[in-house]
Design goal:
Layout (H helix, E strand, L loop, with lengths): L3 E6 L4 H13 L3 E4 L10 H13 L5 E6 L3 H7 L7 E3 L3 H11 L3 E5 L5 H13 L6 H13 L2
Parallel strand pairs: 1-2, 1-3, 3-5, 4-5
């Protein structure tokens, strides 16, 4: 069964969200779209918060956030306990953050990467499993930091 994916963006990420949504639909993912729905200016922390709440409530397995650089979204998302958001700009990082860090949110920069690369990164992120093993200890250390 396919994962439930939650996706969100700010105005800077809206246009990149569209081809990602098309890919997710084509592949049969269940999608929760928390907005935004236009290029009208909004505040990225609001959408990162909405997305993270969907994941931490158990209504989605994994998330994708998009803003101009991906940096602001990753900073906002990582304020939420249980969220491991990674800002990635290449396919290797998108794959490795799942395999080694068990990242549950991929952050993308619409002003940094194009649609083709973004879809490739989403595909790798969604289809890469956490390796566990020695990496589990490190992820547990991150989880402990959330409790401080």
């Amino acid at each position: 069964m396919k994962k439930t994916v939650v996706i969100g963006c700010d105005h800077g990420g809206y246009e990149l969200k569209l081809p990602i949504l098309a890919y997710l639909a084509e592949e049969g993912y269940r999608v929760v779209d928390v907005g935004c729905d236009s290029t009208d200016s909004v505040n990225y922390p609001d959408y990162a918060d909405k997305l993270c709440n969907v994941i931490t409530s158990g209504k989605a397995d994994i998330g994708i956030l998009i803003c101009g650089t991906g940096i602001g979204m990753s900073m906002a998302a990582n304020k939420h306990p249980g969220i491991r958001a990674a800002c990635c700009e290449n396919t290797y990082s998108a794959r490795m953050t799942r395999a080694h860090n068990d990242a549950n949110v991929l952050c993308l920069g619409a002003r940094v990467i194009g649609a083709g690369l973004a879809v490739d990164m989403v595909e790798l992120f969604l289809n890469t499993d956490f390796l566990g093993g020695r990496h589990s200890t490190r992820v547990e250390m991150l989880n402990e930091l959330d409790k401080r």
